[in-house]
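Hey, quick one: can you model this chain's 3D structure?
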Amino acid sequence: RRMEARVEVLDVRPVLCLPDFLRESKAALPGADETRELASCCRQWPRLLNCLRVAFSAGEETKIPGLLFIFLPESVERLVAEAWRRSPSHGYLLHNLAQKLCREALELILPQVGVAGCAPVPRLGRAEEDALRQALGAHDKPASETAMAPSARLPGLGLAYSLLTYYPYLGQCACCALSEPCPKLRHS
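Sure thing. Here's the predicted structure for all 188 residues.
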């Protein structure tokens, strides 16, 4: 049987509050130019955020748990990399802002992740990987700013600012592909 995956775009737009973010980051207050850039990213990046629900099927009788894939496009990665070159402290703030945006979206979609403090990484077989690659490839928008990165890069699809977990939420360690090397388990 051939595995198929369907992708549904979820319209989730977290709101980032710059003063709250700066307070939480406990970093030195940035200069005026850096603050303007951070404020601009707080406004623009939520519109660039992609939240995709992936449902698998292998015939009528078999259903495989779905996935949630949240990511920011490579243009955000390039902007953060450029900021790191100009000022490591500012690059670090932008890096944290991108991560926070992905986590906020994840917690809006799956509040259980915030309660548990962990989003398990899916264990994907070859059939699921192939179906996911094909489904995500069909949703590429090459002319768009939000275009997906090459979907051949699994798991996590090779994007710096991305999250891939089960949807619906399946629990923590028992279903996580990283359960062996997980620092959370080693230090508990």
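One thing worth noting: The CA atoms of residues 110 and 169 lie 7 Å apart.
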